[in-house]
């Protein structure tokens, strides 16, 4: 049976099962034992320019549910609620969000975990919902809307990205900001992959709390820069998951041509071309933008754009050779649809 949060107070429900909450729970789980004396700076608990009020929301819920204690060494002391119903004062937190002059340089929460199993279960509920494409709404738990990206798609695209530069045996550092403009939930995807024993999260940190020398600087006004050091536990499965969409439309999410390197990326596969060769020039035309990817390109059109010196019919051989190269590297034998007059990306991959 799934654990449910207490929802007696309207302020306690606004942050449930969100990415920032998942990040905070994981941070507390990973580091609470070595932070008995130091606590957590408010900046460490911020995933993406989160509000102080929202961070307090999560901590208040955890204390009310008897999962943590927020200890007296928390600074500033004025943040403590003079009333008995909540440990941290929302009104004072809101004032800090509105007037940053009120935010002290040394801003820490000293946290004691008093129910570790319940803390783990709280995070597991978030991960299980995410993995199973469920979303918490005010009315209850519902299936993920069809317009949203499923966990299967998100983890496939995430793995495709990190595997492009993965060197087996070396550590992997991956950054929240690299996925900020995508629909991929960075923190929930890595938590899901760890739950499935595909990776292990060895370190989770906000580099905004460190200066250039690696020394601690708890400055709230620094731009958040959260990263994770992860260990690959099942490389073969990760490769399989990264290429799960080879025969479906989802491959279009990770299909790019890097002109500077002359490399076509399809999932986690690299198809290399010689820069400024006929194959390179053809890919440059076809992958110019989203509209170009969908076009049925006449060889005569490509010839005009790339200043092809041979007869246009020779471009058929270029397209044919490219298709064979892609098939060899990816196993996709019908990536391009070619005729004697034209070439286009197979629509099923768009």
Order of helices and strands: HEHEHEEHEEHEHEEHEEEHHEHHEE
The fraction of residues in strands falls at: 15-25%
Question: Which structural class do the helices and strands define?
Answer: alpha+beta
Number of strands: 15
Largest sheet: 3 strands, antiparallel
Q: What's the N-to-C terminus distance?
A: 40 Å
Helix content: 25-40%
Please state the overall shape, judged from the principal axes of the Cα atoms. Answer: elongated
Strand numbers in spatial order across the main sheet? 7-9-8
Query: Quick check: average pLDDT?
Result: 84
Q: Short summary of the structure?
A:
The protein is built from 11 helices and 15 strands. By secondary structure, the protein is α+β, with helices and mostly antiparallel strands.
Which SSEs are present, and which pair or pack?
Layout: H1 19-31, E1 40-41, H2 52-64, E2 68-70, H3 90-98, E3 108-109, E4 111-113, H4 116-131, E5 134-137, E6 140-143, H5 151-163, E7 172-175, H6 186-195, E8 199-206, E9 226-232, H7 235-242, E10 255-258, E11 263-266, E12 269-272, H8 278-286, H9 290-294, E13 297-298, H10 299-306, H11 314-330, E14 336-338, E15 342-345
Antiparallel strand pairs: 1-3, 2-4, 5-6, 7-9, 8-9, 10-11, 11-12, 13-15, 14-15
Helix pairs in contact: 1-4, 2-3, 4-6, 5-6, 5-7
How would you portray this structure in words?
With 350 residues, the chain is α+β, with helices and mostly antiparallel strands. The chain is elongated and about 85 Å long. Helix content is 35%, strand content 17%. It has eleven helices and 15 strands. Strand 14 and strand 15 form a beta hairpin. The protein has a three-stranded antiparallel β-sheet with strand order 7-9-8. A three-stranded antiparallel β-sheet has the order 10-11-12, covered by helices on one side. It has a three-stranded antiparallel β-sheet with strand order 13-15-14. It has helices spanning 19-31, 52-64, 90-98, 116-131, 151-163, 186-195, 235-242, 278-286, 290-294, 299-306, 314-330, and strands at residues 40-41, 68-70, 108-109, 111-113, 134-137, 140-143, 172-175, 199-206, 226-232, 255-258, 263-266, 269-272, 297-298, 336-338, 342-345. The relative contact order is 0.10. Helix 4 packs across helix 6 and helix 5 crosses helix 6 (186-195).
